[in-house]
Fold this sequence. Notes:
The chain has helices at residues 6-12, 15-23, 37-54, 192-207, 212-235, 240-244, 248-259, 267-274, 278-289, 293-311, 316-322, 328-339, 343-347, 356-364; strands at 61-71, 76-79, 86-94, 96-101, 105-110, 113-117, 123-127, 136-141, 144-149, 156-165, 181-184. It is of the alpha+beta class and 369 residues long. Strand 8 and strand 9 (144-149) form a beta hairpin. It starts with 5 loop residues before the first helix and ends in a 5-residue tail after the last helix. 40% of the residues are buried. Residues 1-37, 39-45 and 351-369 have low confidence and may be disordered.
Amino acid sequence: MSSLPYYGVSLLSLTAGNMARDLGVGDGGTAQVCGHADQKEVLMSEAVGDLIEAMVPLLRVKPEIEDFCRFGGSWESAHAPGGRRWAQFHIITRGICVLERPGLGAMMLCAGDILLLPHGDSHVVRSYAKGPVHQITSDYRNGVRDKSTVDSEMDTELLCGRLLFDTAEDNPLLAALPDEIVIRTADQPLMERFRRLMLDIRDELDSGKPGSNMIAGDFARALFVMMLRDHLSAEADSNSTLSLLRDRTTARAVLAVLGDLAREWTLDDMAATAMTSRATLVRSFRKYGGAAPMKFVSELRLAVARQRLAGTIDPIARIAADVGYSSEGALSKAILRRYGVRPGRLRFSEPGSLNEGAREQVRTGEETL
Length: 369
């Protein structure tokens, strides 16, 4: 059995693991919690803090602001896959627009919203308004591309770019990040710090002064580090993978599976990796992740396959083999069942790729925002 990566060793030595042992979970014992409820809350808070510390490699990011867009009327802008370790982002400073991704539906974005696609999914950003699509022109200023629509009054403004996770390409913790992270700052007093950074980034780029792109990039780095840190803190309970990484027993198994998805994992293999019994592993997975271990592995394989399909140009057959599918056909069937499209449709979004039903959901507010 290969050893866990260095970040796995770090995680498994954290207080979160000690807390699980003290509470009698992860080692097959019955929970013995002494004291008051607030003591347990303190322990849980410490576990979340330790999880964030273990995921510090994901906070080493290098943003690149690529486009400063001022659009009006009806428009569409396609974005190709970002590639491994590259996320894509949009910061909406004015107006309303819509994000489209095959298999995942549509999402409305409004002024004050910050969107991060951690896996660099291909996607289309388009106007909320319908009608003939206006031509988009581009011009470079201080290394940033200024984009605008022709013969239309500007009503939407957004900053677009990509974000490099400065960590090993095969860092399995990247797979623990969700398909998207959205922060909506409008009318939210607690989001004032994000709004200030958004305005600073916009003002720097708008000034056109020498070095403005470098300064805006530094502001963007601070913004996304705070965004990732806050997301990891808030989602440690609701995200099943992050929750599983908080327990010593399940963390061993999860990190091993993430590091070798191509392996034919069995319950016995996972229990041996976690150094516990099959029954204890099943109980721990249900407690922290809400699903049995083998169900988790199946869901994880499909999720990582979707990430690779949407965010890279790796051959489909290679992705299928890397994540543990017996053939490209087997992966294709699984993707079609889950996302309603063939793998190739997740590969690159073309303008107008969503069907009219999905667009109507956005217009009527039926899509969950």
